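help with this record:
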Amino acid sequence: MEEKIIQALILIIPLLMAVTLHEVAHGYAAWMFGDPTAKLAGRLTLNPVRHLDPFGSLILPGLLIFSGSPAIFGYAKPVPVNFRNLRDPKLGTIVVSAAGVGVNFACALAAGLVYQIIAPFAGDSTIFLLAARLVYGFCIISVVLGVFNLLPIPPLDGSHILSALLPPGARQKYEQIGTFGVLILLVLLMTRSLDFLITAVISPLVRFFTGG
């Protein structure tokens, strides 16, 4: 049980960091394209408390960890974006939506490099071992967030990218499933219907970043 709690902390702490960076990236991208909504709301901050969603940041990942799910996923409160303020609504929507994913993959690369540096010392020091586990966890979480957010399921980023690319009629019909998006994603995760992403995409990317 003690190891389970340690494992949960090693995953939840990096998760809070990853979702915070993810949301801040969205806000900065929107600001660069002319929408100051997130900045005015005080959401361009690395303070995770400002971004926490009780269910998405704590309850959902906790349920997945203790249920033995191979994929640990979570989310923060979306930063407010007024897409009508964007100088180029179509391109801006795509860039803003992709910004969080891009930052997650950049974090995975950085974490993987740090892990490769400190992993050889993990057997000689408890501190290095804990640091290696935290960094490895951050790499995994960053890859998972990056990959899962590309799924075209509302409200994930992939759905906004796809919506921006669809013609108006198809876009309107597609966006109608948004109300059920979180429920659809939760069911897919809990029933392990997305396990193929772990074996085909996530695991190879983690091995690549960490030199495994």
Summary: The mean pLDDT is 88. The chain is about 70% helix and 0% strand.
